[in-house]
Amino acid sequence: MNKRIPYALFALTLLTTAACTPAPKETKIANPGASVSGTVELWHFFAEREAAAIDTVVKDFEASHPNIKVTVKSGQDDSKVTQAIGAGNGPDIGLSYSTDIVGKFCSSGAWVDLNPYLSRDKVDLNQLNATTRQYTEFGGKRCAMPFLADAYGMFYNKDMFAKAGIAGPPKTLDELTEDAKKLTVRNPDGSLKTVGFLPLYDFYENAAAHLAPATGAKWLTADGKSAIGADPNWKTLLNWQKSLVDWYGYDKLTKFKAGLGDEFSTDNAFQKGQVAINIDAEYRLAFLKDQSPALKYGVAPLPTADSAGYGGGYVTGNIMGISKNAKNPEAAWELIKYLTTDDAAVTKLAGLLKNVPTTTKAIADPTLSSDPDFKTFIDIFNNPNSMTTPPSASGPAYQETFGQFLTNYQAGKVKDLDSGLRTADQQINSVMQLGG
Amino acid sequence: MHTVRKNLTTLSFLAPALIGIAVFFLYPLGSAVYFSFTKFDLLSVPQWVGLDNYRQMADDPFLLQAVRNTLWMVVVFVPARIIGALGLSMLLAQLRRGAGFFRTVFYLPSLIPPVAATIAFVYLLKPGTGPVDHFLEKIGISGPLWFNSPTWAKPALVLLGLWAVGDLLVIFLAAVLGVPESLYEAASLDGANAWHRFRSITLPSIRPVILFAAVTGVIYTLQYFDQAAVAGSIASGQATVGAGISQSFGYPEGSTFTYPLWLYTVGFRYNALGYANALAIVLFVVALAVTVILMRRARAFSGEEA
What we know:
By secondary structure, chain A is α/β, with parallel strands linked by helices.
């Protein structure tokens, strides 16, 4: 066989591969007032009850926009959307559960910049909650709009509080430690029977991102590098958590945690009264109502290191954007505008999906705030002390890399916190560079 | 002319297989090699970066941990399954009554999808509430934390692999049953005991099967993904879909964090497809090298020419 044939085949493969990769495409938008019609395809990740809620609101949209027909595909996750866009067949609209994709989708142009549409239609972004505005733009591009939000706070067991003689929810981290100790019950052999607050970072919703607002700890510098080692607020948070872990005993906590049920099952440790205080979001209210109606619980903002910072928590949410290869971007924008800025639609969606609405008027809607527990989460959402995780071109790389450091730290594997945090910075920057 | 026609006839018969290999193996492999020299996120045009992705492996903080865990699995998991399958097959070969029943019982677990089997195993071994823990408690043993312990998580995965050893078992059983009875009879007449018969007759006779099991086992273990991902997710108590899954990769404390989990994470979570392709190429080269070494050693061992 001719020896050049394999080389030629390899070169052909490379050429074919290179030719099959996506090329940038410029989006042109219509003039103001131009009529919009046709079919638009929406991919979302919801299923069952939540997918039915989306269908309901989409039908409302079709009724008010008779020239636009919406095709909805449920159960589509981020990787499917990414692959479809990369292959040139992206849906007109993607609805994602994670703000982690914003950095990459904005920087790569996978989702188009919505600023031209917003300017043309004179949409006032100030009607959107400030934190949600942060996590929907990256590098000066607004490629996403917030589609409802989650606000994280604290759930506490009122019966267990009363039994331990605690009047109300803790507001500072010191109070949280004090209450956690009072609420903890040990077995005769010293093992843990019930735990006041389970401080391990890999327990349920205790991820560093959800606890960072307790001290106001920052993730990234202005130039997108890790800010963890240089921000003393992280050290405050880590020292507080480690001292509580040490009070329980890491091995005892790990053993106790190993026997607990799954977070999203009826065996959830808070719902079963095995843990008295838990970090969780507003969606837990629906689980409690459905699965543990007899449980007496209260909700409150996240306790903070400094009482001046009290009132907030972690905020995140779902996001929507238009694919760069959308077939009908104008109709896509009409639907996104309706689902994210029409107050009636946003209020209806929030009521159906039991998530926090994102527009000022919807947030103030009395039907949503009539439930005092839900109102607490709306207040957390509106509080200026609330924080989110900043978008990054490498997605959640910085959070997950730090997460690995934290699991080692809480296990006692990091002897010197200062040098450990410096190493964590290097590791985070190194991992972010892979995808950035 | 006759030769050309003969070659064309041969080629036409080979064509379906050749096309399949070209489309489903050579083209993806060539693409992976190309992308491993680029910075690529699936969404933008790839940028040629030369050997940068390979150089970055030296600074990768998680690569060493992933390699260490995968090596542990190769060194323990592969021999454990081979020894388990060999031992079981020899026991089953001795059975005179109920052989069909026991063969079915031991083979069945391998038919269960890995994800379902892993979920079931995590619940069986769950500390405090799992039946295994209850049983151990009753006989006075304080069970380990299994999938929740960084020391026991990998051994628990090995147990899972041993439970589902049926795929190897059928091959070993066929090989063991295929050893001519006359050899054993002759050895017995010469005074050979059970160990001698095993070492001098069974083992050499089934060597090709052991080699096959070792090669496919190493390749399978280098790609060990499903069970490690699911065990980490379920044991962490944060079983979820979509975005959350890679957060619990490696749980607990990175002990189940294998090479393919890291490859998936950098590729599909951190959008570093170029680097992920470089990791995939390294994995391919390692798998190929291990296969070649195993084949050569096996040939040398059996006296064949390398």
